[in-house]
Amino acid sequence: MEKILDTAKSWLTDFFDPAVKEEIQHLIDNDTEELKDRFYKNMEFGTGGMRGVMGVGTNRINKYTLGKSTQGLSNYLKKAYSNEEIKVVIAYDCRHNSDTLARTVAEVFSANGISVYLFSELRTTPELSFAVRHLNCHAGIVLTASHNPPEYNGYKVYWTDGGQIVPPQDGEIIAEINSLSFEDINFKASDSLIKVIDKEVDEAFFEASVKNGSVNAKGKNDFKIVFTSLHGTSITAIPEVLKRAGYENVTIIEEQAKPDGSFPTVKSPNPEEPEALSMAIKKAEEIGADMVVGTDPDSDRLGIAVRNLDGRMQIVNGNQAMVMMTKFLLENRKKEGFRGNEFTATTIVSTPMVKAMADAYGVEYKTSLTGFKWIGKMIKDFPESEFLGGGEESFGYMVGDFVRDKDAVTSTLLACEIAAQAKANGSSFYKDLIDCYVDYGFYKEHLISITKKGMSGAEEIKQMLKDFKENPVDSVAGSKVKWIEDYNTSISKNVITGEEKTIDIPKSNVLIYETEDGTRIAARPSGTEPKVKFYISTNTELDKAANFKEVSAQLDAKIQSIISELNLG
To answer: Which of 4, 109, 261, 383 gives the lowest tally of CB atoms within 10 Å of its CB?
Structure first.
């Protein structure tokens, strides 16, 4: 506690604002537990940036923690591009303080002689990724905490290719930041280096989104969409992109259209949570809409609901949406003619069904750690190859490579194209998904997410993963465990034969069991939240669409038995 107190008192110097000092003194005098939580560690600049609760302290998002990161990034950019005029672009989302924090970040860059393009108002994360290359910038920043609760904010860093920072830049930038003290931050802005941007970049982004997401699908006039931005940034882009692509029957949920960092109409602004889309689904049932689309606050994730076999709106999960988008892109390229250099990609905890499809089309399939920065890195590492599209189970997808992060704007358009074309053909999005299960195997996934907050929570998560690794199971749902993939050691071991393979992916705290029947159980801590996640993937054959409900129920029962068997319930 003494060390924590010393750290807190270091924020009582004249370098810090009077209001900051007053709040810290109040905590020192009156609230030891809160003081401890705010100062027991530094807000870490991780491999993609920072995300955390806003407030005063070293373990909070504020002008000083963001300022220090920006100062370190400025120093790194000046070393890496010593003979160039350095340019960065900054965007921000709907969260409380995002606009003022974005301005602070811009001022620190400018104080270091770096030219800044700053969006005039909130914009989507995919537009920021696009803007980095469109404006020939060396880096980009977006102030966002994605789908986290209202008290959170964050800071994501993009590199010259428009993708998030990856090795070796991430480690080098972290080292630069960690070498600084707060007093090293230069807050003396050079306003002449800050240029406000908006419509010109918007126009270019909208045009690129329509070009990449539209395939001139039939049936648009007869296709009804309900859209909700869940109080986030996508209201600035998705309605316009849909309109330009020819969709006129779009109903916007007005109660959720106004950007608001408190997210007053939802428990969580996360389209992975069914409750987030409830208002839009209710409207869709009222007006007989064909599809619901909802996006998270920075518009990189999208949730989709479509009509199921019983004619009711049903949410499709991230794996299902990814399967349909990838299938559509593969099929369209097949019609155009494969060039032999295409690839699609997903992550190690996403559905194996994408690989089954890619193999069937003879297209290369690549896999990465969780996080779109790794998919973006693939595009950079293999310039001779063409990225068709790819995604991850957590409701993110990227179409082509004009954006180098998950992109709910273009993915929304693509999903609408798929569904409109299916309806025009006398089918539906949902029926076409079932046909995919017949063709490539019926894969069904389930996610268990366990939240553990605070210092003790971090230790609990660490222990759970340790137990999962040190006490391996022999079988899962009656099928023998065949492979154990340990991404910490980069070893994949066949526990039946003893064969070992090297995993050619960067090390990460992930462990995956795979059984003889293809069932997969993956465990990993969340990189952005105090959670540990368990991913379950099962599969079987579906001989014909008519048996879908029966086989689906069988897989559901298998998943529930696995949850019970592994004590994850």
So the answer is: 383
Cβ pair 84, 168 in contact under 8 A:
no
pLDDT digits (tens, 9 = 90+) for 310-362: 999 999 999 999 999 999 999 999 999 999 999 999 999 999 999 999 999 99
Q: Which two tokens stand for residue 140?
A: 């980009």
The residues annotated with a catalytic role in the active site are 146
What is the sign of the dihedral through the CA atoms of 397, 400, 403 and 409?
A: negative
DSSP codes of every residue in 142-169: EE--TTS-TTEEEEEEE-TTSSBP-TTH
Decide the pairing of beta strands 386-392 and 342-347: parallel
Same fold: 41-197 with 203-440: yes
Q: Which residues face 515 on adjacent strands?
A: 481
How far lies 270's CA from each of 124, 263, 299, 392, 439, in Å? 15, 10, 10, 15, 31
DSSP character for 301? Answer: B
The domain ranges of the chain are 1-31, 41-197, 203-440, 442-565
CATH 3.40.50.300 at 41-197, yes or no: no
> Which CATH number, 3.30.310, 1.10.10, 3.40.1350, 2.60.40, labels domain 442-565?
3.30.310
Spatial CB neighbours of 146, under 8 Å, sequence gap ≥ 6:
51, 154, 296, 297, 298, 300, 301, 528
First to last CA, the chain: 36
Q: What is the pLDDT of residues 379-437, one digit of tens each?
A: 999 999 999 999 999 999 999 999 999 999 999 999 999 999 999 999 999 999 999 99
Overall residue count recorded for the chain in this entry: 569
Is 151:51 a contact under the CB 8 Å cutoff? no
